[in-house]
Description:
Helix content is about 85%, strand content about 0%. The protein has about 120 residues and is mostly helical. Helix 1 (about 1-25) packs antiparallel against helix 2 (about 30-55), helix 1 packs parallel to helix 3 (about 60-85) and helix 2 (about 30-55) runs antiparallel to helix 3 (about 60-85).
Amino acid sequence: MARLLIGLAGLMGAAGVALAAASAHGADASRLASASAMLLFHATAILASVALLARGLLHGGIGLIAAFGFVIGAALFAGDLTVRQYAGHSLFPFAAPTGGTTMILSWLAVTLAAAVKK
Length: 118
């Protein structure tokens, strides 16, 4: 699981940098800047979660749920903003808010994973 999460974090980081570049060079590309930020921040959060799990500082099951929640939430949020930018429509109704809510819940899950004993 850890290697999968690390690989996904790497892909998210690469996509975040690519979207940052597209935002810097494109006209009216503020959506891409937001998408980039969410991918980059949460790629780092995934790597941190994996490291904390490996050190036993997070409850295993809850910590894994949080890490995968970061992946899903950031992908939905950034994917929706990117599709809106380039295609002019949403990924699906409420995709960005669903992704944002998933990221918020994942941060709360990290809090819970730190508080719950193994």
